[in-house]
Design a protein that fits this description.
binds zinc ion
């Protein structure tokens, strides 16, 4: 079992970019992960990866990593 298995990981990706984006921290655009903290505690709740569009995109999707 992974140490951070309970954490949710969400990827915010452009859908109409010139290239496809993986739901992975290893995506070619080099997404930067941000810790998300639960409001009531200081515990890390999950991670959000914001992907970098290669061109201006209007369609974005937030999806949870499996
Ligand atoms: Zn990406």
């Amino acid at each position: 079992m992974k140490e951070h298995a309970v954490h949710k990981v969400v990827h915010i990706r452009p859908l109409d970019d010139a290239v496809g984006h993986e739901e992975s921290a290893d995506c070619l655009c080099g997404p930067v992960g941000e810790n998300v903290y639960a409001r009531a505690t200081t515990q890390v709740f999950g991670m959000i990866y914001r992907h970098h569009a290669l061109r201006p995109c209007h369609s974005w999707e937030a999806s949870a990593e499996m």
